[in-house]
Design a protein that fits this description.
By secondary structure, the chain is an alpha+beta fold. It is built from 35 helices and 26 strands. Bound molecules: adenosine-5'-diphosphate and magnesium ion.
Length: 991
């Protein structure tokens, strides 16, 4: 079994791990063993100090080395890969990524989200959602909130216990928690609605789920110094999925609305958005109804001149419509809210006498009248409720006028009570509208968006509750993460020294423990039903809790206070007013006043009476704010424990919400507050990669070419169940990779052991070994791909050659067949021509013979008789012009050779090309070649006229006929108007 290097994490974050020669490590604190000999102790101490110094120096060197490589810093997708993990390296890496506009980074099991403070539309588009949803391994994509969303979604699908998932989004105010939650809701609304099945219902639910956001933000968010849209309540939304993974409903649970904001706004802060929306978005008619003239100032509406993008009444009204809040209900809601604004302008004057009630000036009377009208209560009753207290003395009621400040408190109390109940009513309405029947949904994904750790100049009960919630979440995170990791190591048989981590149990004991804790003492104080004294309570705290290291007191401060050392930093809480806030009493007169309201909504809000105050009156157990908050948090923690959590840490890169501005001090404080560096250390110390043997062999089996891979793929092999067989195959694969590594580096076998461990069913790896495996796998795959390419190319070349050869053969065969056929035709044609030619020759010879026999007769007749008129046809066919004869003569039957021989001077004009042609023509005309007797002029190079001249031999009779082969003497030019050949013969007498 591998000997796993022990790693420790200490609160002081010093490098405190030393590796001994036997390969194990021990803490420096333990390194100096007690010794009786003082010198020896001193020597050991010195050596330990030297060693510590050298370790710190080498660490600083490592940090410098790491930071030098600045160009690559932004490429670290996971902060556990940063080496060494120190606040400065982590910070530098995050800064580099932020500058490169990369806003998400993994930190082991957590996702760190840096707020860009500017819209990055392409980062959250529908296409990106689909890409992450359809990817086989979304983890291989760039870090993104959609990876977390998809992982949770697939876990539900995977049906592995626990199936329900929780996405915990934390961070300080303005870090981007609500934005991230909205993104997650949009993702699920898209992904779970992508099915065709019951599209209508899903769309409706989707609209309602998304619509609940603007409505709850309008009523629960406000502009604070840290965030212009700060959520003043915590929420846990359950997205309910049916068996087919479709979104069928949702429910929302809210925590600790900051209702004091209705009646009190810190300097430069605003009231809840809804009041500004009404003031700015109301129509004229609504203004009249709500009694909100444009020029009216309201005490509870500071900074009304500042307009934010959240001040959009229309969006809230649309969300209300989507959720099914009808018009009459909407009117009732807005009327009540308008009544609260009027109430804020009511001021009380001090009473003239103690027994008298406080006076109202004319101005305030007007506002009180309007309040009474808008809340549909009696004016006098309202006034008396605000100014007179009813005390119970036995069965009698005693009326006691209130002081000026008491009147103010009662006024604020009325407004807070109404607003809080209205908010609760809205949440219930939203739940009724979105929540699916329990029989329909089977799993859920929960989104937790709670306010982050808070530390103001003055902190009171609200901050104590908020910071307590954050402590609880931090504890859950550390416990869950370490428990899960370390339990797995034990079940897999790893020799593992348990990691020490910054445990906040002490702080939680201080706040909520028993028997004595801040909460228990506060509750006790409230139950005593006496006027609370802050100083007295402070002394009590000091007495009861001074043993706890997490609480302290500033001796120089005069204000009663206590300071709690939270995991994220020290916070000082003022005690003044804390008990009152914890009791949060609503005078019974106010409750009964509202119960008598003519407004049905307001009436119903208080119809069930004041449960808490019922308790107060009966002196039984008081339900304090702390108790309520603690109970709701307990139930939330129960839900979180029963689900698989996924953590997202939102970081605010600068306090001024400026786009793309990274303030190192701001970020490092937040990293420390949420324990990110420790988380990374825990991840880096252990084996972040855990792969079951089967999956490992499926991916990396090709490295050893094991036949098990094929069997695993079939999934029905009996050997599949044999983990030992699989384990040895896995070891073979790892040996191959490590051997190769050993040839490239000089690391010891111990280093190998620190990189991996084979458990009972899983192999545990570090990131670096996983990278090596991946690299080896990729190299093998590219070698194999190359081999396949070569074979394929060879095969393709062979195929190509074969095809070419076949084509050539086909072409040759076809060509020879075509030529043979053509030649056959030529042969036929030639023999036809030959036959015809021979016949013509014979016929011509015969004709010539016959003509010669009659030649003399013609000559005698010619001299004696008058020449007959030429037949026009003959004239046209055979035009012969003898220069001595005026009229054309009739030429008949004489071979041209004879004509030529007997003509006194004959010029035969021929159109021919080439000497050969003329010769052959002469041959065919049977003109004897006699040098000197006639001249042959040829136009060898040009087409045109050639002339043959011969000596005259007496009188001429000429008979000329065309060749029996029609146009045989013609030049093969496709011009019909050009007729070449001896179609004109001029006979000229030169004597
Ligand atoms: P929180 O809920 O943590 O108090 P918000 O979610 O309201 O903070 O974020 C504060 C502001 O930061 C938002 O109004 C928005 O303008 C901006 N913001 C937060 N996250 C992003 C983001 N991923 N992209 C762009 N702007 C963001
Ligand atoms: Mg928020």
């Amino acid at each position: 079994m591998a000997n796993v290097k022990q790693k420790f994490l200490f609160k002081n974050k010093d490098v405190s791990t030393v590796k001994s020669s036997d390969g194990t490590s021990r803490s420096l604190e333990k390194a100096g063993r007690p010794n009786r000999q003082k010198e020896k102790i001193n020597g050991l101490k010195d050596r330990a100090q030297d060693f510590r110094k050298s370790v710190i120096e080498s660490l600083e060197e490592d940090i410098r080395d790491f930071l030098i490589n600045e160009a690559e810093l932004h490429t670290y997708d996971d902060l556990t890969k940063v080496n060494p993990v120190t606040p400065s390296t982590v910070l530098k890496c995050l800064q580099a990524r932020y500058s490169a506009k990369v806003f998400y980074t993994h930190a082991g099991c957590t996702l760190v989200a840096l707020n860009p403070f500017q819209p990055i539309p392409h980062l959250y588009s529908l296409d990106v959602m689909k890409e992450y949803h359809s990817a086989p391994q979304p983890q291989e994509f760039k870090p993104h909130i959609f990876i977390v969303a998809e992982e949770a979604y697939r876990n539900v699908q995977g049906q592995v216990e626990p199936m329900n998932q929780s996405l915990v989004v934390s961070g300080e105010s303005g870090a981007g928690k609500t934005w991230t939650s909205r993104c997650l809701m949009k993702y699920y609304a898209t992904v779970a609605a992508s099915s065709q099945k019951c599209q209508d219902t899903v769309e409706k639910i989707e609209r309602r789920v998304l619509g609940s956001n603007p409505l709850m933000e309008a009523f629960g968010n406000a502009c604070t110094l840290r965030n212009s849209n700060s959520s003043r309540f915590g929420k846990y939304i359950q997205l309910q999925l049916n068996g087919s993974q479709l979104l069928v409903g949702a429910s929302v649970q809210t925590y600790l609305l900051e209702k004091t904001r209705v009646a009190f706004q810190a300097p430069n802060e605003r009231n809840f958005h809804i009041f500004y929306q009404m003031m700015k978005g109301a129509t004229e008619k609504q203004r009249l109804e709500w009694m909100l003239p444009l020029d009216q100032d309201f005490a509870w509406l500071p900074h009304a001149e500042k307009t934010l993008e959240e001040d959009c009444l229309q969006e809230t009204v649309e969300a209300m419509i989507n959720l099914g809040i009808d018009e009459s209900k909407r009117t009732q809601i807005f009327t009540i809210l308008a009544g609260l604004l009027q109430l804020g302008n009511v001021d009380f004057n001090p009473a003239s006498e103690e027994a008298q009630t406080c006076d109202l000036d004319e101005h305030s009377k007007g506002f009180l009248q309007k309040t009474a009208d808008l809340l549909h209560v009696q004016l006098d009753e309202l006034e008396s409720c605000l100014t007179v207290r009813t005390l119970r003395a036995g069965k009698q009621n005693i009326l006691k006028p209130c002081s000026q400040s008491e009147c103010g408190v009662r006024r604020d109390c009325l407004a807070k009570a109404i607003y809080a109940r209205l908010f609760d009513w809205l949440v219930t309405f939203i739940n009724n509208s979105m929540c699916a029947d329990r029989s329909i949904w089977c799993n859920f994904i929960g989104l937790l968006d709670v306010y982050g750790f808070e530390c103001f100049l003055l902190n009171n009960l609200e901050q104590l509750c908020i910071n307590y919630a954050n402590e609880k979440l931090q504890q859950h995170f550390v416990a869950h993460y370490l428990k899960a990791q370390q339990e797995e190591y034990v079940t897999e048989g790893l020799q593992w020294s348990f990691i020490r981590y910054q445990d906040n149990q002490g702080c939680l004991d201080l706040i909520e423990g028993s028997p004595s804790s801040i909460f228990s003492l506060l509750n006790e104080e409230c139950r005593l039903n006496r006027a609370s004294d802050a100083m007295q309570f402070c002394v009590r705290l000091q007495k009861e809790l001074s043993d706890n290291d997490s609480i302290s007191w500033d001796k120089f401060s005069k204000q009663p206070h206590f300071t709690v050392a939270h995991y994220a930093g020290k916070v000082s809480y003022q005690i003044e007013g804390m008990m009152e806030k914890n009791k949060d009493p609503v005078p019974p007169e106010l409750i009964s006043l509202l119960q008598d309201s003519q407004d049905s909504l307001l009436h119903s809000l208080f119809a069930d009476g004041d449960r808490e105050n019922e308790g107060l009156r009966g002196h039984s157990k008081v339900v304090t704010v702390i108790s309520k908050f603690r109970n709701s948090l307990e139930s939330l923690m129960k839900i979180l424990h029963s689900t698989t959590p996924h953590y997202t840490r939102c970081i605010k890169p600068n306090p001024d919400c400026r786009p793309l501005t990274f303030k190192r001090e701001e970020v490092i404080a937040q990293l420390e507050a949420c324990g990110i560096v420790e988380t990374i250390n825990i991840s880096a110390a252990g084996f972040p990669i855990r792969i079951p043997y089967g999956s490992f062999l499926q991916r990396y089996g090709l490295i050893t070419n094991t036949r098990l891979t094929a069997q695993i793929n079939q999934m029905n092999s009996p050997e599949m169940s044999n983990q030992a067989v699989l384990g040895s195959a896995v070891e073979d694969v790892l040996n191959v990779v490590l051997k190769r590594r050993a040839t490239h580096s000089t690391l010891s076998p111990d280093d190998n052991n620190n990189m991996l461990h084979c458990g009972r069913t899983k192999v545990f790896l570090t990131h670096s070994l996983l990278e090596m495996l991946e690299e080896h796998r990729n190299r093998l795959r590219s070698q194999k791909a190359f081999c396949i390419q070569c074979c394929w190319r060879r095969h393709q070349t062979n195929q190509h050659n074969l095809k070419r050869q076949a084509a050539t053969r086909l072409q040759a065969g076809l060509r020879s067949w075509l030529i043979r056929r053509e030649i056959g035709k030529w042969h036929k044609a030639a023999s036809v021509i030959q036959t015809r030619w021979r016949r013509w020759r014979v016929w011509m010879d015969a004709l010539a013979e016959a003509e010669l026999d009659d030649a003399e007769d013609f000559m005698e007749n010619e001299a004696s008789c008058v020449l007959p008129k030429l037949d026009p046809l003959l004239k046209e066919r055979c035009s012969v012009q003898l220069s001595s004869i005026q009229e054309p003569v009739m030429v008949r039957g004489w071979p041209i050779g004879l004509v030529m021989a007997s003509a006194p001077s004959v010029t035969v004009s021929l159109t021919a090309t080439g000497f050969q042609q003329i010769k052959s023509m002469m041959a065919c005309l049977k003109i004897p070649f006699r040098n000197g007797e006639y001249k042959v002029k040829t136009n060898q190079f040009d087409q045109g006229v050639a002339s043959i001249r011969a000596q005259p031999r007496g009188s001429i009779k000429m008979h000329l006929q065309r060749s029996p082969l029609l146009y045989a003497d013609m030049h093969p030019v496709h011009k019909t108007d050009v007729v070449t050949g001896f179609n004109q013969i001029l006979l000229e007498d030169r004597t």
